[in-house]
Amino acid sequence: MQGALAGITETDIAHYLAATPEFFERHAGLLASLQLVSPHSHRTVSLQERQMELLRERIKGLERKIMDMIRAGQENMVLSDRMHRWTRALMLARSASLLGQVLIEQLRHEFMVPQVALRVWRYAPEHAHLPWAQPVSEDLKTFAASLSQPYCGANMDFEAARWFEDGGEHTQSMAMVPLRLGRAGGECYGLLVLGSPDVTRYQADMGVEFLEQLGEIASAALGRLMVSERAALQPQDPERPSGFTPSRLPVLQAVDLSDGPSL
To answer: Is residue 103 a contact partner of residue 218, using CB atoms and an 8 Å limit?
Structure first.
């Protein structure tokens, strides 16, 4: 008997039983006599009891997954509602000069972000006096342009952290979102910065899809800053094409047709 089992492993036995379900039909008494140790109660149980335990564990695992999906769906719905209200507030801004203020205040209110800062380095001259138009270093512009996606992580004494009201003294984690012209990959013209005293609020391994959408909406809205509102408010003749300049018409000379053919 020992010689017959030589070379047979537990894996071989498992594969045989899985591939030969009729084995237990031929040996029905074996199912009733098998005794296993439950990992939960540490007592001896029958094969049927152990199967029931495994089934209950699987059901509990599925229930947890369903609850996680429901929770994620609810969180996404809340974020969607907040994004809708924030976008609407940007669209209702009365003038381009108010966009920066509306963007920052609504981000703080809707998304409960403790620290928000904004810098834009392309704008119409009339906006140069506003807080978010303050000069930034060329190094920061280069860094912002190099971001292929929002940066999330610890505050490594970034220049952008000093834009916050406390100068970044209490900023432990940050998210930096580049603002670009047109679609993704366009010219970078600004940077939106979110900060928190909580070191776990913005982490390097977190998903950035929501922040990318936030950046796309902010980029589209703040594009109004590059157009002079004074020029935009100048009235134009609706019947005259844009860029049309009337030229002087030639003077027609009178011609005597009395001796010519008649129609």
So the answer is: yes
